[in-house]
Specification:
single chain, mainly beta, Immunoglobulin-like, 63 strands, 1% helix, 46% strand
Amino acid sequence: MSALALAVWACETARNIGGIQRDVTSPAIALSNPAGDTQAIAGGLRFNVSAVDNLALKSVNLTFSGGLIGSLDTTFVGQVKTYAVGRQITFSPNSGAGGNITIIGRATDGAGNFAEDTISIFLSNVQALQVFLISPSPGAVASQNRSIPIEVRAIQNSGIAKVGFLVAPRSAVSNPTVPPNDSIVFLGALQDTVDYTDTLTVLAATGTFDVIGFAEDSAGRRGYTNIVTVTIQSAANDVTPPLVSHSVPPRVEVDDTVIVRATDASAIAWIGFRVDTGGVLLKFDTINVAAGNLTDVTRRASLNLGSVLPPGVLPHSIVVRGYACDAAVARNCSYTNTTTLLPSAPSTPALIPAVKLAGPPRSPNALIDTVIVVNGVTVPLAGTGTIADAIYNANLRELYLTNPGLNRVDVFQVANTSFVAGGIPTAGGQPWGIALWPRDTLGGYKDTIIVADAGGSYLGIINVGTGGPRQILWRQDLPDFIIQTYKVTVVAGGPLVHITDYHTSDLPQYVATVCRPVSGSSTCHADSVYALYSTAPTGAETPPFSGRATLRMEKLINTTVPTLKFGHLFWEIATQSFTTVSDTLRIVLTRGRNFSKVILSACGGVTVELARMGLGDRTFARNSGNFTHAFFGEGGNISASFARVMSYDARDQLIEGGFATCSTGNGTNDGGQVDIDFGMSPGRDVSDFIANTGVKVVSVATNFNGLTNAVRADSIYYLNQDLRRMVTSAAPPGPSPLTPGMDMNYFHDFAPNGTCPPLSTYCGNGTDVNQRLIFSANPNGNIDVFDTFFGFFLASIPVRDPIIGPLRVARDAGGNQLLFGVTPTGLLVLQLPAFVNPLPAPPVQH
């Protein structure tokens, strides 16, 4: 090795006579985030790193900035040419990390050559301290005796205690504010979002100065923004127009914001924007800002196109440009002339960068934006957190959205398109599923909601109508079901009964409601309103139920007397003819230490394969509009052989057996009830219809009468009430973590198997083919419309952002159909246009 080193040294001093060349080939490095551009802090910060070099890597260094400050270095010993690793950075429960995190990876080889790659990930954490320097922003300019604005924004769930900024060198500016401040301290009740603004006067004639924002939260944790360098220019004899840049999304709603930024050493006097359509001026909007004497101005203005666009033209193409004039004697003006001051609008939302949005292309230099004005209005959600489920109350024109991240139910009022401050905080620690209290089997319901608290073993029964405000009426405590297997073996001393206990989670997740009416009436019997719910596993369940959900039912009744309550564990879904070993099933229901009973004894002779009773940890539940049916889809942590759906018909018989004893052979006996619900799909009908695809269920829907059921997986599958697959629509599921929602037309009353004999209660002949529609969220930012009988694609409704959460279609009190969808930027509210279905009615079957 030493001889080789000497030879190389000699070659370097002899102009490479020996032919040995210095390595000048840089390594390659790539960062990727297969877990998505938006990640929850509970799962950690996840990304992949891969690097390669022609000879040998020396090190791979990762630098984190923004919502996480730090570095992670890897140094190699020996000749390592390739490096590939998946990183997962975990955080403590009270970590303040979160927000936009920029990761810069640098790979260096032994000769000092290097390469870099950068990715950004949004780490969702309601506890994160997020600090942003809104102004100045990169590219800012200033001039002597002119002013420059400062704006720092801080966000933290527990409250902001201090916010401010630092300037270096401090002598470059003065602060005309009386008294001069560079920070502010808050006392008493702390706000979770704070904006701090100030204006500085520039003293220096040339050079630069740096600005950085900072904030402290209620726990004393301090966070900083990135540093922005401001360049000082001369304004003498200015005949140069200002630098103007604008930013607008590729799809906009009528009241969306256009951001225009202009900089000029002579200060900005006018700033605004222009909108054209078809080469004709549609709108020109400018304001005079000369009084501010500011060299850097950013204006956020509403497009406000509702007053200038004629009705019924959406979607519609427009052209947008920024505009500004400076305060120089020559009054220099310009439309958008640079792309450096503001970033161009992203071609797609950050969650799905691989999907292209439809619409006219941008101009080559991106100085003029051709954008699409789309349908709907998106209202920002009330705070952070996540939306798990939603339901609409047409009586009050309110949408209720469960927000487990903020421990409340958010209330959106359609009448004023706004959220109720604070929502409903009494809904539970982790409100998840939500349903309405049925009044009859014609679609009527009370102003009462049922909320499943995944953080506790109860359902919250909440009044949202008169007598409020939105108070909890009672908590429906849920029972503990102990699943047992029963076996009798004969040993030397005589028969021995083996009873093995299996424990599962009792925490409710998704919920649906049904009722059984008074005989001869459509009115729900007061004693026959039921909640059907899936459970949220904790991971501590007994195998084979580890991490598995179960399906259960609870009669809704406000009483503390356990004998008046009724609960049922749907063991029926696991009954089937088995060739493998089966177990005799026994189920014990307990409601506290003083009450328990056997609700399925060995006398029932029920044999099951236990593993089939466990469902995926995200099993969806929806009820029909008339509260006679419910539909369930197994999602989450499932294997390919366990992708199932279940249906429930409240019109079928529910048997609550009386206590009885029976012989179980060899002189042994068992006793208890044998409760059976014939409304739940039996095991032979429980469909594993997507087993061959290995794709999990991501959403489900059912129609008004429960006879058409839809499952979203790799496509949309339409099933009849017996879970037979009738037709399929090609609908992309979207990349994780997207959960594309879907819902049917509110008055959809068709059956996917077509018409049937008159007076039959098990078919839906339908009344209007224009109601035979389903609305499905497409990851490309559209809402696709399909016919549910033929599976045919009918139309597409462009919207601004893709729907990534619940999608609900509801009928308003005025008869209009409304569509609600949770997007990355808020709640989409859309009045659906009338659709004409060109496809015929189903043929009549005789």
